[in-house]
Structures are given as C-alpha cells and as structure tokens.
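User: My advisor, Dr. K., asked me to get a structural model of this assembly before our group meeting. I'm new to this, so sorry if the format is off. These are the inputs:
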Amino acid sequence: MSAPLSRRLLLRALGLSGAGLFLAPGFLGRALAASPVSPARRALVTVFLRGGVDGLSLVPPVEDAAYHRARPSLALKPPGSGPGAALKLDGPFGLHPRLEPLMPLWREGRLAVLHGVGLPSPVRSHFDAQDFVESGTPGRKATPDGWLNRALEDEEGGAALRAVALQPTLPRALFGSAGALAMGRLEEFRLRGGRRGAEAASGFSALYAGAVDEALRTTGQGAFEALSQLDEQRLSRLPAESTVEYPKGPLGQRLRDIARLLEGDVGLEVAATEMGGWDTHAAQGAETGVFANRCRELAGALSAFAADLGPRLEQVTVVVLTEFGRTVRENGSRGTDHGVGSAMLLLGGGVRGGKVHGHFKPLEPEHLQDGRDVPSWTDVRAPLVEALRACRPGVDVAKVFPGFTPPAPLGLFSV
Amino acid sequence: MRLLSFWPLVAVLLSCASGPHPAPTSAPPAYDEARAVHALQRLAFGPSARDLAEVRRLGVEGWVEAQLARSGSALPPELEVKLQALPTLTMSMAELARDYPAKKQREQALLDGRELMRPALIGLEQSAAKVLRAVESPHPLEEVLVDFWFNHFNVSAEKGAVRWMVTSYERDAIRPHVFGRFRDLLGATARHPAMLFYLDNWRSTRDGMPRPMRRAPRGDAPGEAGAEVESSTLEPWDDEDDEPKPGLNENYARELLELHTLGVDGGYTQQDVREVARGFTGWSIRRPRREPEFFFRRRAHDPDEKVVLGHRIPAGGGMADGERVLDLLARHPATARHLATKLARRFVSDSPPPALVERVAKAFLDSDGDLRTVYRALFQSPEFWAAEVRGVKVKTPFEFVVSALRATGAEVTVRPRLVQALAKMGEPLYRAPAPTGFPEVSAPWVNSGALVARLNFSLELVSGRLPGTRVSLESLARPAAPSAEGWVDALGQVLLGAPPSPETRATILAALSKRAEAASAEGEPGPVDVPLIAGLLLGSPEFQKQ
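Assistant: The format is fine. Below is the predicted structure of the whole assembly, which you can bring to the meeting.
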C-alpha cells in the first residue's frame, strides 16, 4: 500500500500536479518514507480531559451505598430506576446517562473502562498533575519531553504528519525530538499568501531552515513539510466526504480532523487532542447540568469518530484520560474538589471492551486516599504501556516511562 | 455585526516621525542602540519609532526610570479618543449586566421593544483596548505589567458571570496596583467578584451551616413575587442554578497558595488548603449576576480557630481571617521566591539565573513587597542586560502581534479579526483555559499551527488584508536606493531593530527574484514587492524573538 502512495506523492512533488506547490528541504525523502501505519501497528489517539474528571460520575458505582451517602445531590440513580438513571455496565458500575451514544460500542466489546486510575501519589494541582501524566515521569519536573513523543523514538524519520495534536498549542505529551505538529483546525493549517503565496512559502521555508533557534527551526521545517503534503492531498481544503455528523463544539471538530488524517493515509502514528471544562467545583449536576453536558459532547464526538472510521477503527486505539479524579463527597457548592483516582476510557482496535477493568473498593472511608478520595489503585502509566504495546509492538517501555516497572498485565487489550 | 468605532485619523503616524537612522538629538554618551532595542523588547512590547526616539532622548536608564515612575499622567488625546469609543471600558459590572445581558434577557427586552447589546462585545472591546494601549500608550511598561499580573491572577470570561466582571477586574483590581504593594494587589484580587466567582469561593461555606430558607422550588411561576420565601435575617443567594448547601469549596484556597503566592513547591499541605478555605468562608458576592459586589456572609463563615502554615488564627476573627491569611502569604519567603522566579522568567529568560531570583526575592522581602523596588532590582541587574539573554525569548502571540503593529507603525482600530488571529496563535485574550493563565515560557508557543497563524498574520498585515489595520511601508523606511537590496536593508533595520543577517538578506532577495519572475510572466511590470519583504521579515524567526 505504501509504494503507490509514495509514488503519487513523489509525482506531485515533482510538479506534475497541483498549484501552489513548494518544496522544503528533506520533503522528497520524507514523502517517499511516508506510509500508512503498517497493519501490525495501530494509530494511538489520546483525548485529554482537562480539569480533573469526576470518575465517579463518568462511571458511577451505582450499587455502592457509600456513593449515594457521600453525594446526596450528585449521585446518579441505578439502572432501571426511571429517566436519568445510569446505564448498566459491569458489576456495581453504571455509565453516565449522557454517555449513552457510547453504549453500542460497549455492547460490541470495543469500549472498555479502567477505574481507579491515577498518579502513583496524590498531586492535586492541575498543572503539576497534567505535567506528570504527560511527561510520563510522575514526581520529576525536569523531564523535558513527553511520553507520546518518546514512544516515537523507536523509529527514525517517519512522515511529516506522524505525530499531530489537534489543539492550538502543542501538549506536553508531544514535546520532544520526534517532530510533532499542533494545529487548531486542519482547514486553518495552510498559508494564505494571496498572489504572492508561492514566493512567501518558499521564502519562509528557507528562513526557517536557517533559523538559529533550534525549536523554531525544527518547528518551521516540520510545518512546511506538513503543509506541502496536506496541500498536495488537498486534505486541508476539501470538505469531508464522510456523512457522519459530529456534535458541535471543538472536540467533534478535532476528532473529525483526526479521522480525515487517518483516512488520508498521511502516515499518522499518534494524535493528541483535548477537551476542557471538567473542573466541576460547583453546580456539577447529576443527569443534567454542566457535567452532563460535557459528557454529551464527549460521547457524541467519540461515537461519531468511531462511525466515521468504520472498519478502520480496528487500526486505531483511543485513550481518554485526565489528570486526577475528584473528592468522593460533594462539597458545599454541589460540586467536587480535586481528588486522586479517576476513570479512563479505552476504545478501538484490540481493546477488551464491555468490561470495567481495574481494582475498585466500596467508597467506605477506610478505602479512601486520605479519607476523602478514590485512591489511585492503578498507576496511570500501566494502561498507557498496554495501549502502546497494542499499537506499537516492540516499543521500548523503559525509554517511554523511565524508572517505571509495569505491574502484572491488566488485560486491557487482546492483541 | 457591529463594528468597533472607526477612527479615520490617527494623530500620530508614528512611522513618519523618524526614518531608520535619525540623528540622536541629546543622547548621553553611553547611548547604545542595541541596549535601547533590548529595553523596548522586554519592557515595551518591542520598538516603535516613537519609543525609540524617546529612549534616545532620555537615555536607556533614564527611560526605564521614567517608565517605573509612572504616575497618573494622562494618555495622549488620540488614544483617549479611541478608548472613549469603547463604552464598556468605563461601565460598572451592574451596568454591563444590565445593558449587555444574556440571550434570554435580550429576547425578553426585544418583546418590550428594547434592543440590548450582546455580551460578546464586552470581551471584544476589552481586547481592543488591550491592543490599543499596548501599541500606543506612552507608558508601555504599565501595559506589560498589567498583562503580567492579570495573567498571574488569571480569571476567564468563559466562566459564567465572569464575562460581566473582567472589565472591572483588570481596571479596578489589577491596574491600580501594578506599581504598588503586592499585598494590595493580592487583596484587591481576593475581594473582586471576578475572582470570587471564577474560583468558586463565593459559594464556599462552613460545614454544618443550616440551610437558609429561600425561594420555593423551581417550577413555580417565574418572576412571581410571592414565590420568594426569604427571611429578612438571611442574605439572598442570587444564583439561578444552584442553591447553597453547607460545605467548603477548596478551589480558591488551593490556587491562592499554588499560583498566586507560595508556588506549588512552597511547602503547604492539603491540610493547609483546608484551613485557608475555612478562613475564606463567607467571602462572597452579593447578586453576582445583577449587581456584583463583594459581600461578607457572616453566617457562612467558619468562626473556629484555623492553623495555616503553623500560624494560629484565633477563633472569632470573622472577615479578618481571610485578611490574616493574605498577610501571612504576602510576606512569606516562598511567595517572594515564586514571584521573583516568574518575573525573571518573563523579563529575563525562560530559565533565569538562580542568583538573580534570590536577589529579586530579597528585594521583595526587604521592601515588604513594594513592586517598584522589585522591578528596579530586576531591571538594574546585570543579568537583565546580559548580551546572552538578548533575543532569547520567544514572543507570546500577544507580544508578537503588538510588536508587529508597533514596528510597522500601523494605524490600528482593532476589529474582531485581529482578536481572532490571536486566538488562532493560541492566546484567546481574557479566556485563558486554566487558572494558571497563559504560559510564560517559550515551548508551548512554538508549534506548527501557531507558526502558520503568525506567518499568515504577517502577510495579511503588510498587504492590507487585515481589517482594522493600515500599514504604510513606503513611509516606514527610506531605502538608500529603491532596489530590492535597498528595501531589504532599510526595512530590516526598522522591523528587526538591527540589520538583517546575511543569510536572511540572501533568502529574502531570492524570494523576491522569484516573485519578479512570476510577475513578469503575468505581464506585469516588476517593481520591488515591498509587502513581500515586510511580510517575510515579520514572519522571520528573528522577529518571533525578543
């Protein structure tokens, strides 16, 4: 599959098609190397829910009496108890009713939950907790790069679009030596130079190739290579062919763009995006309200993404993660404060779905971290290791998560 | 869409005032153009022709001192005129809530035949004012500091009622104190409804507070006077979506310690967060969605003793508990170090020398948090002026946009497109997505999408395609000869503050010759494409740095 694509790109790069073409140093070589993710590999997509997701509302332990006692206004009703009740999952767990669009994926065994997951020791600062999850080195602030980027170090080169963040700034997880791109929207990722577009593009390309500042140089080169490729494939211009409807809001837009890159066979290996609004200190709501609205957007976007990809979802693994969970007890503002363990969602190829994985104990005070929070029963790095192994067999885990010894397999993936 | 006001004439067309090499009039012997440019890069959003002339006139040290001495001298009339055309800037929170209400109230008003303004205009006007002041104010250091401290004490207009409060927050809580004492700045933010709402403290109550009697459950006819059941001894909680329930909210307490004062490694514990939160119970807002003002809810306050960082705050302090916590934090050595680090990062380099941080922290503690003294310690330090820190910091999107407008002497009226361009570069003004504010260091700003947005901005600005801006390149520089080389050299000096490097020069000339070929193929004559030169210079790696 890779040869015809490369030849097509090469022919175009040689000027046999397309207007507004410009070449950046190294582009030809990279275009030849660009190939779709090989069948043995999957693309890894991460969705970071920023603000600290209340795992107990995402996947509520509805059969636990302590849960209902701790949350008089926030607890969700057990399945079958009328409108607004949680949806039946596994064991004591339900799914938030506004995540209903995910239920078909659950039933098909393509969606799994890992509960009680978090950093190895409590970090209740958003900034530090996000930093530790994304650097992949909890407790160590000096780490310059991120776990997703280190995961790409197993292979030299790769396509210009091998690592892409669909968000306005590059996330910490993608900092590092393997070139990674960030873009707010695919359709805005093009140079608008008007009638002087070609000259501006080649001028900028050369200026950045010679930049003294290393970060600007590598970022500029990566940008121009990606621009060339996207321009050639017209990915940033054409309307999506898909008829799948994504929900309004940034997450739907971003997952749609990721789906287009995957379908365009641009050589995408990892993609990262994010969604905010989960820091629900006040008026969090139960089956309706702020949290419920976030759930609706999340589930709508994920299920549209799965439908958009169709059978290709087998070659993609989606990990939905956050920085920490929230207090078991609701606070004085009908919200929850920063906690420790939360829930993670895993979706796509290889996932052993239809199951709530991980340890979990009833929410009695003796089982709580500091008497208040769901503990981090599973180190957040453990599921990330399994996702990586499912996507990139042979990945050097010790390099991605230095100093981390993975526990016994959690069994999140079948292949 | 309502346009922002249009100002047909800008009284000072900055670019006309001086060419690239005007003769210094009364420059002191020590005047050094590179130092002048550095001072303007860090303390003034980049050089403008007017401010360069001002630095030449006063000398670099004299100019820095004049900026630090900023006393109430008025803004120039032409800037005043532009700001006066933005009515929301001077309105109170209550006026804004009344005249720029949410959709439901606007629709209701329409039924009564009154057309009210959209609240989005509040943010647009405030963003416009921020850009205009940064470009044109004769006190640019004040604007840099307002930007810094707002970001330090970040609130976001994205969160509920905060959108009607941000104008007042910057105007009344931040700006008056940026040359004052840190304790006053801290206190002003702590009591401002924007902060109380943003970090939820307004709803934090002591555990076990009896539930106040209040309005009947929803479902009753709205607006029916009889539906309001309220004892006269109880304060109203004016919020449609939530009735209070006893209990602490830790949000403000945690960010106060982590972000505003001690820093995340400042040595506090989870227990300290609880104790601080207890101290601030009752610090609330009266009528947050209609006439927001600070309000102490005595019944919500936890009257018992608190112990914060080992200091005992005796029982019965009432509202003063919060003030005592602020006193303690504002004088804490960890706060001094945290603030010194952030300031040094902003003004010197992403990883500032530890010795400098220590010195600035000491100035903070010795002066009891007098910010002018702190700035002076920083700006007079050899580290601030060191050759190796010049040009090492990547500009934030706001710094990039403003420095481009200043360097090109653009006439600015600020339309929505300019504000949107900033959002595409990753900096949606007044809407930073986390309490942390926008990043102070380079790495998060340097990414491909943001870079493409910067290049597009550069090209649009110089070719007259950015609504609300007008640039006259011909009056900006006077080339020795009207050749490509002449224009590259002259514009390079003006826009980069120094002659372009040989590589940059050669690259731009190569792009120009391609352009000339393309133009002659189209049958056009081949004059020098001056906008292309300016666009390449503004988008160049050099211009992204300061």
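One thing worth pointing out at the meeting: The longest helix of chain B spans residues 502-521.

User: Perfect, thanks a lot.
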